[in-house]
């Protein structure tokens, strides 16, 4: 079991490295909650199935299965069009992985319309706006 008092990238494993920019929203909310099924605070009150699907989509993005990740996230969005973690992950997918910057900005705009103080979405939106004519 991992020691949660030290960030993953500060451990001595040679494979350890800092997380990349734009890490999935659910991963940004990690804490040391031993009482929950997931080791992070469920800020957006997502269901167990939503959490599992988000984890699956993230794993697929890491593996480069971008189409499969997109399919999962878009299907989740049909169930809840204002799910901030899904919108954020779609922004990340389109901006970072697919270089579809206008689409990424649209998803981050949707996040900011729901949650105007979301600094992560605001910063990512600003980053991708630089690439749009």
Number of domains: 1
What structural class do the secondary elements suggest? Answer: mainly alpha
Count, helices: 6
- In the predicted model, the low-confidence regions spanning at least 5 consecutive residues are 6-22, 30-36
Keywords:
about 130 residues, mainly alpha, Serine Threonine Protein Phosphatase 5, Tetratricopeptide repeat
Describe the structure.
With 133 residues, the chain is mainly α. The model is unreliable at 6-22 and 30-36 (pLDDT under 50). The protein starts with 24 loop residues before the first helix and ends with a helix. It has helices at residues 25-28, 48-63, 66-79, 84-97, 101-114, 119-129. The chain has one domain: Serine Threonine Protein Phosphatase 5, Tetratricopeptide repeat, CATH 1.25.40. It has six helices and no strands.
SSE layout:
Blueprint: H1 25-28, H2 48-63, H3 66-79, H4 84-97, H5 101-114, H6 119-129
Helix pairs in contact: 2-3, 3-4, 4-5, 4-6, 5-6
Quick recap of the structure?
By secondary structure, this protein is an all-alpha fold. The protein has helices spanning 25-28, 48-63, 66-79, 84-97, 101-114, 119-129.
